[in-house]
Amino acid sequence: MAVNKMEKMTIIAAAEKEEEILQAIQGLQAIEMKDFFHSNVDSTYIEKHFASTMLQSDGYQKKRYQTMLTEIQDALIFIERFSESSSKRTSIKRKILTLQSLEQGFDEERISRYLKEVAALKSSLLDLEATKKERLEKEKWLSRWQYLDVIPQNNSLESVELLLGSINSANQPNFLTDLKKITSIYVEEIYHSEHHVYYSLVYLNSQATKVTEVINEYSFNEFVYPYDMLPKEAYQQNKEELAMLVKEERDIKRKLSSYRDHIEELYLAEEMTYAYIHREEAKKHLLNTSYFFIMQGWIPVEEKPDLQDLLPNDEVYITFDQPSDTEIQTDIPVKLKNNSVVAPFEMLTEMYSLPKYDEIDPTPIMTPFYMVFFGMMVADIGYGLLMFLGALLVLKLMILPRGMKRFADFFLILSFPTIIWGFIYGSFFGGALPKVLFGIQLPFPILSTTEDVNTILILSVIFGFIQLLTGLMVNGIELTKRKRYLDSISESFAWQGLLVGILIVVIGMLVFNNDGLVTAGIIVSVISALSIVIVPIIQTKSKVKGLAKGLYGLYGLTSYIGDLVSYTRLMALGISGGSIAAAFNMLVAFMPPVARFTVGIVLIIALHALNLFLSLLSAYVHGARLQYVEFFGKFYTGGGRAFKPLKTEEKYMNIEKTKSKRIVEE
């Protein structure tokens, strides 16, 4: 259980085999492509003898697939949003496929035809919506003039003018008063809205100057009627045109709905297009000539047999090399390797930082501590059973994305320590377990959260003490492996001795009242403290600086006290979660019987759901904090680069890893 051992793979094959080999590698999902021109391989021979045949990628295929991807995504959004049955959205059910089966089901010609047809419908619908918008605007202002019973353009009287327009309704009284002062003018109110009044004015040409003065004074907004029919007729005609547009829109959406039968095919096409894009990106790392290509990549050692079985030996030259010291320090990626119980906890390590390639993987060491701490902070049988059933049902009934599956596995495993600590505290949804069941005396609670608070507090600190000693032990072993023997003493073993010596003194004084134990503890502590001070003196040329460094290092004992205090949160969160759950139960219990078995049931479910969420969140965050700050700081550096193999996007499906399947018939 550690960091996966990697080797550098080099493949040389005929140019026409490039696509097949890349497909096989993508299906294997176990090789990270390495840029050939940035490797430590001497390529001068190739550049010298094959310079005239070397090819440069123009990126055309990648751009083509990116364009297709955009078109597919636009088509899917358009179908889902605008098809007539948009209320019944179709979601693709996640499934497991191999890359080969996905690629075999991808018909680019048919997908391109779908995309063109959907694009044409989209263009028609957008044009129709623009026209519909214009007609609605036209209907809006025609509705204001539909009661005008003349056609302004047909006014045949040379001595009379017809003026249409509107004013602010606040100016209406004064406007009408001033118009009455003009002789021989006819004023008709056509429409009255909340803020404006619409008029038609008929007056003699000789009165035009006076009318102009009035309309200018009241900001009369003149309206030019553009149609050669009555407004009522124009209004009716516009409504008919709108009805036709609505019908056309319905027809387009009905045609669009027929593409729902192909929507899964489009989703699969999107997935396949992502795969093509990733494959095209990988080609940038190859050395290509007219006759052959060279590929390099990092591969986990245990994946080598599968790769060798996939590639025909008589057509492909393949070698594996151990990484150099320089590559280990600067280039090699990190992939963790753990069993099924520990693997879900890798996400905690990844959130902090992956280990370097030559560094220990802290996940297996951290996992048992995290499980105990998490269970101690949630500590409820009912909550643990809900976690178990919820995670189990999700895992059994659904095909989850890999990241979500790991998260579900994580909480499935954590449900067990939660249930165990629930029995220890005797808590079931905040209620106490019975003392006697079927005449049998039960031992629960083993620790009471009300009567044994001090015991739980001491237990929390003991767990923290054990974890700190474990971290120091791992650090000492790692330093010893690197032959840094003095550092292993001053940075690890001496600190273990100092902490254990202090523990012996405390036990001898407070528990056993034994002077011999106290003396032994003092001796161990003094020897350890002297080691912490003396080692820097030995390592440093300036003895004064070494002494100062050693004394400053010894001052770090205060940080260990702070670390141990941090572990008291195990007690605090465990007791607080249980107390809140018990308070919720008490709140509902105080309700009258009628309310208790109606509203009370809904209320207790909601309150416990909230408490469960907060308890899980707190345990997750604080459990991780104890690992990152108190534990990892004792031995772990991190800084590794994640292994990123050539694979697919897996947006809508899980791609099953290809195993032992030849890609070329021999």
TrEMBL record:
Q: Which keywords describe this protein according to UniProt?
A: Ion transport, Membrane, Transmembrane, Transmembrane helix, Transport
Q: What is the annotated localization of this protein?
A: Membrane
| Record's keyword annotation contains Transmembrane helix | yes
**Single GO biological process annotation from the record:** vacuolar acidification
Question: How does it sit in the bilayer?
Answer: Multi-pass membrane protein
Going by the entry's taxonomy, the superkingdom of the source organism is recorded as: Bacteria
Q: Where are the transmembrane segments?
A: 369-395, 407-433, 453-472, 493-512, 518-538, 570-591, 597-621
State a single Gene Ontology molecular function. proton-transporting ATPase activity, rotational mechanism
* The keyword Transferase appears for this protein: no
Cellular component GO terms, alphabetical: proton-transporting V-type ATPase, V0 domain; vacuolar proton-transporting V-type ATPase complex
Against Pfam families, the record matches this protein to: V_ATPase_I (PF01496)
- What family is it from? Belongs to the V-ATPase 116 kDa subunit family.
Q: Please state what the protein is called.
A: V-type ATP synthase subunit I
Identify the species of origin: Enterococcus caccae ATCC BAA-1240
